[in-house]
Amino acid sequence: MMRALVTSVLLAAGLAACGDATAPSGEPPRPPAPMEDASTPREDATVPPPPLEDAAVDAGTPAYPFPLPPGFPQPIVPKDNPLTAEKVALGRHLFYDKRLSGNGTQSCASCHEQERAFADSRPRGVGSTGQVHPRNSMSLANVAYAATMTWANPVLKELEPQANVPMFGLDPAIELGIRGKEAEVLARLHAEPKYPDMFAKAFPRDQDPYTFDNVVRAIASFERVLISGRSRFDRFQYDGDTNALTAQEKRGLELFGSETLECFHCHGGTFFTDAVTDTTSPSGGRKFHNTGLYNLDGKGSFPLESRGLIEFTGVASDMGKFKAPTLRNIEKTAPYMHDGSIATLEDVVEHYAAGGRTITEGPNAGVGAKNPYKSSFIVSFVIPAEDKAALVAFLRSLTDESFLTNPALSDPWPR
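RE: above sequence
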């Protein structure tokens, strides 16, 4: 009975997130689809790429199979960067290589640590030059399915162009800081004895495979295999193991899927986020939400350094809108929110129970619950302390220990 309820709730939430207009049969009835503002970016549906085996362009190179858990659809892979084992292997080495930064001090993994579900423990990211980024480092778990990259960029839709941002970007903060040091960084890669064979095998058609375009393609290939879907919740949901969750966690799951708390509207479906695309829904769900985190002037303002979707659209109602991150492995990705300003899961629950955060003093003072741009799904609720604890317990059941310790995803360089 419980597993049937879970399936119905999560399927309904996943369909709502994708904008599907038909309701599945059976009980409970499908919840309403999340409301969208007219300012939410959209695009026409596109034709999904061919299967991986048809997309492989290097003769004799087999397509790399996705190790997909039960219930996971096939992710979209760009036609111009088919996934191969050789590219994944090279990308793994580059992802962990500190030589891929202007001053040789940081790698991609510096802000995306495996044991933290490829996020980190800082409130906001810190770049190779010590600059503090205005936003929290987002988990890369299941990033192959992300409809948009980063917290609030509606046009950055693929991993390849996203990788260029930390590598070469200067604004809003320097991250890897390669700009102006391209030749020096490539020379470091040339000097590594492991790389000649790896680059040649990953890009066999290129006379000189040592290019930043190929670096980006390889890193994106590795990131596409960061698949997480073997938590205790998954054993309960997909393997039929009714003992995988405790009674408390099952109660938390019921609350999560209830209209009282509204969690599933933005964090539903297989990936516990509504910002998802795959081969079954190639146009994706590019959704962004204001959760009442700030209300600086009583008119909805957010701190100037990180105001969300409005930075791209200029539309007033997009103030404070950010992507709903995946809740998979959420226990490991603290602190929370786009700026890391909420420390614990218990504090996150209190934030939503209040319908928004109240800050009583300082430059960010304001009543978030009264933010005029706040999502209609962020409503206050009153539940007993034991139910709040049950909700947090359920969220912790989404931790995939095998993902956090998988040696195939770990740092390949000697320490």
